[in-house]
Amino acid sequence: MNVLQNLTTFYDQLPIDSTYRNVAGKILENLAEASNATIFELAAITDSSRTTIYRMLQKMGYANYLDFHHDLKQAVNNYTYYNRIIPPSDILDSSDIPSYCSRQVNITSEAIEELLNWGRMEKIVHEVMKAPVVYFFLSHQSAAVNSFQQNLALAGKPNGIYCLYPDQLTAAKEMPEKSIVFMNTIEFAESQDVTEIFKEMKSRKAKIILMSTSESRYEKYADSYFVPLHDGLSILTSLLLEESFFLVVSELLRYHYIENKS
């Protein structure tokens, strides 16, 4: 994930009384100032110490302040390229946004029919239930994944979601052999390199399903993509397709292993 996703996810998952949550929150509230700050200046901006900042950055997967500062400065100065769901060429006026989303929903509906093959989904569900543990290495939590996790719990299948690099790496090192992992990767130039995580998972013979609709640079480590590769899908359609995938797999698991358990 990129630095802004990292900060936001880190902030969201911490309890309200966490010192690190307070530091991350103040960085997010003062991005322009923080992106140009030295470590001493950032300590003043966040009402914290350099030690606290260093420890927080380690928990986010950064080896040093220089790497974090570089990524933050890049993200703030070039935000036009970050967090963009709709291409600017498709928006001439704000009224174009709802109509664009409507068109993408229609495209997603067609993609679901074409790409979320029933037989393939059924196979994934049965593979999930054969695995010792199910892991979600994702950049964010979602309602669809949460629903899937609840059904996995009811079916007696251990599972967990890990969003931050250090947590994913630790989980990869500790996962039982032949676990199954649903993993999405943010592959912009400024995103964290997760090669070490993939190598750890493969050393444990994990089955890795990539949550991507386009070719990943980590493809050689994966067993499959969640759908057949499909060039030309928009970011919005890909996101909706991923959510739909988890909802379908979740409901199939519920049908076979909870409501019609033999």
UniProtKB/TrEMBL annotation:
Keywords: DNA-binding. One of its GO terms (molecular function) is DNA binding. InterPro entries: Homeodomain-like_sf (IPR009057), HTH_RpiR (IPR000281), RpiR-like (IPR047640), WH-like_DNA-bd_sf (IPR036388). Residues 1-79 form the HTH rpiR-type domain. This is DNA-binding MurR/RpiR family transcriptional regulator. The lineage of its organism: Bacteria, Bacillati, Bacillota, Clostridia, Lachnospirales.
